[in-house]
User: Fold these one by one.
Assistant:
Number 1:
Amino acid sequence: MAERRSAVILVAGALALLVYALAFASPYGLRVLTVAGVYALAAFGFQIVFGLGGALSLAQGAFFGVGAYVTGILGSRYGFGFEATFPLSMLVPLLLALPVGLAVLRLESHYFALATLGIAQVLHLLAVNLPELTGGSNGLAGVPAAVLFGRAVQRGLPMAGLVWGLVALGGLIGWRLARGRLGRSLAMLRDDPLAAATLGLDVGRLRLAAFGISALFAGAAGALAVHTQRVVSPEVLEFPVMVSILTIAIVGGRGRMAGAVLGAVLLLHLPEWFRFLERGYLVVYGVALLLTVVLAPDGLTGLLDRIAARLFGRRPRASAVAMEPPRPPNPPDGLAVDDLRKSFGGVRAVDGVSLDLRPGGITGLIGPNGSGKSTVINLLSGLERPDGGRVRLGGREVTGLRADRLARAGLARSFQAAVLPIGVGVLEAVAAARLAVDPDAATAEAHARWALDRLGVGDLAGQGCDGLPAALRRRVELARSLVRRPAVLLLDEPAAGLTDGEKAELAVLLRELAEEGVAILLVEHDMGFLLPLAGRVLCLDRGRVIYDGPAGGVRRDPAVAAAYLGRAVPA
Amino acid sequence: MAALQLLVNGVALGAAYALVALGFVLVLNATSAVNFAQGDLVMAGGLLAVAAAPLIPLPGIVLLPVVLVLMAALGLLLALAAYLPLRRRPPVSVFISTIAVGIILQNGAAILFGPEPRAAPPLFGDDTLHIAGLAVPEQSLAIVAVAGLLIGAQQWVFARTQLGRRLRATAQDPEMARACGVPVTAMILVTFAIGTACAGAAGLLLANRYFVTPTSGGDLILKAYIAVTVGGWGSVPGAVVGALLIALFEVGVSSVLSYPVALGALYLTLLAILVLRPQGLFGEAVRRRG
């Protein structure tokens, strides 16, 4: 239903543009339309790296400029044809993006913005100060028209046709990427990079892919811009290009390919209505950008969606047919931890903890608040790096490995406060946990449905995560761990906030999982829940293990009692 | 002797950069938001001085309080339009809203003043003093003195007054400050006013010897950003030291090679620092707020 509606709107929009271009547009109007297409293409790439990936790249304008210069230099100086210059205009920005991305993509977002802006400035300086190559501040004139199938694409209708044909192609590719595994993984790590890593997503690699793709789109757009203008000058590397792309993406709607097209057509025509501002037309962009960020953060496409939802009702969330996810071929047989240590400043949060999680066993980890339980889980799941000690996963040394590697090696964890994404459907949120392993998003959703069914909450699949009651949130969170078929499962207070009945159900489920061969570590305060379940219990106090033995003995242990009640340990 | 001469020039430039970076880092600490408009605010302060100069035919130092007050008002406006509506949203929203404000300032200035470089009047006089063989322009001394005074005043307010304690509490932990009865929103507004006034003062100081054009904000925000990164994200003394280092680097390399080379080298150094030592040369002062 909703799909068909979007398709109808898209086709209607395309037809309207076509009719305008063929019947009404003046030569100048066609030129504006062509440039709008060029910017839409550049904005597609920006939607992927920033809209979906959340990495504010201020180099998108620079990649556009590099693409423009490659076509300009090779075309006007060396007489290369379109068939060589166009691919090279995409390739050179990509080759520039990869090493830069490798170096700075793991940095926090403000540093990433700064680094990409720095690169843009360096490129602009080079373009102005290397006149032998770039023509200096005058640039290069006499760039030939694009030649396609032996015919020169003249300015006007043919060029508009070429550009908008490529916009259609690029938009389709971008749309498929955004809806598929890559787009969903990017959105996941944009919203919560820590959770994304614990679900096995490699933050750096995904961002690098997004950055590379953004460079390809920008380079293609730059090449087309030069074929439209027939000259290339340092203007293509100046900040206004970046500003335009940013404004188009945000005003159109973050992360949406349709938003990029809508934003580009609208914003490229906007200055025509503010002619009196002359070169100051960018003031209008600034105002549009500010108003959108403050008043309509989802942009125009978001507004249209909301209006459509008002008129035709909410689009139903897709539901999938359940499919059991396969078990990994050689699951690691348990987790062995030896003498784990971690200090924060002068505080020894974890001080020589050893434990052994066997397949099929449930191990309890207890201790007063601040005794280091959550730090142990953070260390084991790779969110913190241990200062000392060894961790082996199925005999393999994994000490200090990154969270996403540990997750892919068969480890899953839950968080004390359930960290479900905002504004995302339950099925999608659980499917996100399979993105690192499944071949496509549809398979991931089928597997997610299986996990939800198994936890008895299959009917939540069509709902949103927002506003779920605590107990159901915990279920959904658990489904995210379960769906990955982990060999080792670390649970941080999974029973907190549950009623007695819900706790009993959870206990049954955990027993089942253990019988299937999962090694479980259970951090818990509720002894009534934990002790019947766990075979073995460890008690931590100030980072040290003060009890390690059968669950039955823990209540009678004087050291444990002392730790909880605050008495001195009798010598 | 030539090195000493460069040192004098570098310190004067660095004093002005220090004001820019100081304003940037104060807002950063109070809101954990990157104010991308800081460079354009410097430009606005400079052009404000240029516009006010014919109306007040006195030395530039008289313009300083006028610029400070008007820019503080602009800072309040900036906070109301681009920060307060977005304080519950991800930090990148403020980054973008301040980019938008920067675009508006830059292009608004281009419409009002045109693209030509303009110069504001000198603070005291245009003479050059000759001290032990060094040619020291009066303006350079005045820049160092005024910037030093303003930074000192800011430090005094923050360290010694009740207002300063409240501002620091807000910067350290807004939730806790609110719980203790500090009017956090008002403190954030004051911080924006102070940060923007710093930018405006820097604009007035720079607009005499280095001229001002509507587009000069772009390089300045990068330099402020670099100063804060070099000095350790969030560290106030680090930002001042970082600004001085950048200015000395710029003046030194420009004298041997050229200004574009100096700028390019500066950005490449920045990239190297980000890759090798992202916590800055002196360590990061703020950890990410959870």
Note: The first strand of chain A starts at residue 147 and ends at 148.
Number 2:
Amino acid sequence: MSTEHEMSKASQPGLQPGLQPGQQHDQHGLSEKGLKAGSVGLIGAVVIGISCIAPAYTLTAALGPTVAEVGVQLPAIFLVGFIPMLLVAFGYRELNNAMPDAGTSFTWASRAFGPWIGWMGGWGLIAATIIVLSNLAAVAVDFFYLMLAQLTGNPDLADLTTNLPLNIATTLVFIALACWISYRGMETTKSVQYVLVGFQLLVLGWFSVAAFSHVANGTAFDATAISPDWFNPFAVGSFSAFAAGVSLSIFIYWGWDVTLTMNEETKNPEKTPGRAATLTVLIIVIIYMTVALATLTFAGVGETGLGAGNPENQGSIFAVLAGPVMGPFAILMSLAILSSSAASLQSTFVSPARTLLSMGHYKALPQKFGKISPTYKSPSYATIASAVAAAAFYVITRTTSENALWDTITALGMMICFYYGITALACVWFFRAEAFSGAKAFFFKFLSPLLGGVILLVMFVKTAYDSMDPAYGSGSSIGGVGLVFILGMGVILLGVVLMLVMAKLRPEFFRGKVLSRGH
Amino acid sequence: MRYVVGYSADARGHDAVNLAVSLALGRGASLDLVLVVPEVQHSGHALAPRPGFEHLLNEQAQEWLDQALALVPPGVQAQAHVRSGDSDAHALIEAAEELRADMLVIGATRNGIFKRFTIGSVASALLHASTVPVALAPHGYHRQEALTRISCGLGTRAGAEKLLDFALGMASNRVVPLRVVSLLALDGGDAADATGAADAAREYAEKHLAAALPGGEQEVREEAKTEVVVAHGRSIEEAVDRLDWEDGEILLIGSSRLAKGRSIFLGSTANRILRALPVPMIVVPSDYELKQPNQPASNDIPGEAQK
């Protein structure tokens, strides 16, 4: 959106002989120029949606851990996982229409439940994005080395990523680069976005076709016949597995809600966002189902070799499978994941930075978080703070976990459930007066977000409880408690501590004087 | 007269405002301070909607512009505008065209590594596409008084007449002396060669100056207070260093011919001059004067070059 504001400085008349009475120019027409309202069409909106989800990255990161939880019921869980996302997204749309604010969950939860829950909602969002930043960087680094190996034909290069100091150093470089690009206010252009999205879909399609043809030719690793049972969520062994699976599949749809909230910039604000959201999710579900089925039929869920259940493969499934499935063209998969995770790494910096900026602006964080760079017009301090946090998170996870990628994704799923749950309930509470004013309001402002919010919070509590088990996730633990629990709860506790410190330092916000509750 | 000032709330923006004030004081021009905010994007993964951030950005932009207006002394009329666009240069050129500005004023950046004055990416893009003269303020320009002298860098290529006309107009309108400067880089060579080249350059400059002056007579020249100076050194930078520059001076140079591939507006010589130059520089598009007569009649204030 473009805006044009005018301010005038009164001049002192008579001082300047050259000034003429008619000097005041007619300002009319300025505000219309430069406006780019309605520049995004249906296809453009779908591309934005898919690029926010980054399917090549989400699949490689989440497919393994999900199989570890639910086995062959992977397709079922991927489908079921969309339901709470959809329900919550309806609430998001209502909140975004009523209060378009850079702080999103933070602002909305503060307006609904007051400063304390609002602060934690914002913290949940920031924590989730910080975690995903570190995971994105790590995945990018894995595929960076894998691609080097494929390019040079020297498989030893791919193993460099397992060299701990080198891996950490490279990941920090990736995070720093993405931070610098984001700080400079540079953005992925539309055409690059189109190419990245098209390429991802093409490569994922190629992978699936290649996997199915291996199965048909009898050259698959562990050819497994597709069974209707794979689509039955009730066939999942336990509620624990189900909850873990759902919180992981929330992650694979994360970013989809962007399409629903694109109003002003679409050509037809009435219809485009809804259509784009539908089309995006159709494309995403089709590609997820195809890749999930291809992976399961090709590799099975066995815990040895290429099996999708092999803990060795869980962190990044395509790093292992792309070679056997696609042969020499596996390099395309590396390129697709490297490019999509690198682009996503850069664009995802915007989320925590804007929430931190907003929190600084509303005095819920030190003032410097609210600083906008005069030269680059980006949230400068907040962006750098996000990068430092992501780097710190990665170093801690990487040095304490046996499988950092796996454990961060599990902790991430938990964190998304936490802040989405709070946000959805904030919607219910904020609109409680209008909830029964009509069928539409009842469904979108009350029922959907209520169901979605409750489901996600239940998943959160269940996953958090289960993750105390030292065998949870990759099986890393500290002092007999599962690492995922320590990561997830540690981050939330850290938030509580920081909140209490902030309440001491800048009590204004916490007394409800900055963001007031209710309408 | 209107000058569009590309403002940003940093040192560069301050330099630009100061230069714009200096330029405006001699001509009674009004300033339009334009702050360009980027068009923000959606983010990946976690939703970060545009409108909220745009709101904060615009709020901040207004605050910055309020501070910018306070930098302008009471005698100069100024307005502030927030523009949004993906490219700062593009948005500034658009603003200059819409406001029918006679000049664009921006600050040059300092290259952090080499500690030299260089033009930033915005200035560079502007110089490639602007249809009005572009004034570049050197880093740390703090002067807010009218100009005291105008220098005009004369190359040996076609278009010198137009640039001289523009410079003469500017000097006589502001009642300041005009100095025609010829900069020569003579690497090695003997003294005789150098003298010969300097004489040729002087002759060339004198000839063009005479042609540009009404009547071309000595008396007119005295009245218009013009002089011709030839400076040479082993490099253009050295030649620039050897000249004396007044605090209130400004150097006018013409752009490279756009016909040559359209890619170089600011020629390599001009770029080197800028590196060594202690005073502001105005780059005039090669076809600038041709555009002047087309200016709308409603604009009753004459353009920079017109008398």
Note: The mean pLDDT of chain B is 78.
